[in-house]
Amino acid sequence: MGINNYKDECQLVLEAADSIFFNKHTEMKLAICALLSGGHLLLEDVPGVGKTTLAFFLSHIFGLGASRIQCTNDLLPSDIIGSMVFKQSSESFDFKQGPLFGDIVLADELNRASPKTQSAFLQAMEEKRVNVDRKEFKLSENFLVIATQNPIEQVGTFPLPESQLDRFFISMSLGLPGRDFEKRILKSENIKQSIEKIVPVFDADSFLKLKLDVSRVGYTDELLDYILDLLAYGRNEIDHGYVLSPRSGKDLLRAAKAHAYISQRDYVSTEDVRFVAPGVLSHRLGGRRGRAYGLELSKKVLDAVSV
Fold this sequence. Notes:
Blueprint: H1 7-20, H2 25-36, E1 40-44, H3 51-61, E2 66-70, H4 77-81, E3 82-87, E4 92-97, E5 104-108, H5 115-118, H6 120-127, E6 129-132, E7 135-138, E8 144-149, H7 162-165, E9 168-172, H8 179-187, H9 191-197, H10 204-215, H11 221-237, H12 246-262, H13 270-286, H14 291-304
Parallel strand pairs: 1-8, 1-9, 2-5, 5-8
Antiparallel strand pairs: 3-4, 6-7
């Protein structure tokens, strides 16, 4: 299979995204880069700006199944993963799957869940499997988490630990729309109905082939050195930079491959890295201070390291 087998289909996805999310082209490209890389997406925003709509759109356009978890402070790990249930007919215990067993899993307001419940996502996000009562259960091959979190200053939130933030591939914010675009939103029909009218571009099988195609995008040793220079500066010169694990570098490369692919190229450039770097680094560098603070630090890293 060659490179860019699905270049036309990816353009259709971008066009559909632009028709639903007005003036959010950059944000949509980042979200699509996360999906094409099989990476988890973290959305930090105030309520009501379209985070749930984004998850619904992505699952629909890529032909994937979706499930939703509304996180609250009394949510238990078993509510997410599932539990063993006694089946009287066979006098045995069967595993009843929780909402974690989906393709795209929307964890809404993740930072309202208790730390114990947040930790229930860790193994699944890293290994695409969970263990219950000494038994292992595999998740979908297309499994990924789209989590939303409210700003940390809001009441009833629990900060996400560094170990969990590092498992998120890209973070982003949709933000409030401009006045002209908000007027278009007010005049438009029900957004969910608009999404349902769009014909899905992929299905689960072709989506797997698409991800494989993206993984084959080429790069040079010089590009790897540039990524390593960014990480070295962040770790040595930026506050909280020690959180930039080797996973950060791998995620930068994977995201840059996806951006090159949807830009209809079969090689990665430094501009691809610079486009995705704020999304890959901001939540890691921001930590408990939030993504906005992390964006400032990400900009310092990009400004300091020459191309």
